[in-house]
Specification:
The structure is a single chain. The chain is mainly α. Helix content is 73%, strand content 0%. It has 4 helices and no strands. Helix 2 runs antiparallel to helix 3 and helix 3 runs antiparallel to helix 4. The radius of gyration is 16 Å and the shape is elongated.
Length: 94
């Protein structure tokens, strides 16, 4: 009965499509962010955009049981959080 309500294949396809879009956004944002390396101030909305994308990937992958993806997204989300709170400088090793 629960299987009738929840079509896992459809949800997996939605996750794949959404994640692909978010990863393209992250890729573009990372390229833009590269221009701020070593600068005192970075574009806060750029970092917020990256944070939101990673947060969405983290949550969706967690719901589907993709623990490795969830853990990676969580770690990257934490780096974005540190950047947006000015707790770490943006460097090439960041």
């Amino acid at each position: 009965m629960a299987d009738d309500f929840f079509d896992k294949e459809e949800f997996l396809q939605y996750f794949k499509d959404e994640s692909e879009e978010l990863l393209q956004t992250l890729d573009a944002d990372l390229l833009k962010l590269e221009g701020y390396v070593g600068e005192k101030h970075i574009d806060a909305e750029l970092v917020n955009s990256m944070f939101r994308a990673l947060h969405t990937i983290k949550g969706s992958s967690g719901m589907l049981g993709f623990a490795d993806v969830q853990q990676l997204a969580h770690k990257l989300e934490n780096v974005c959080d540190l950047l947006r709170k000015d707790r770490i400088p943006l460097t090439e090793s960041c």
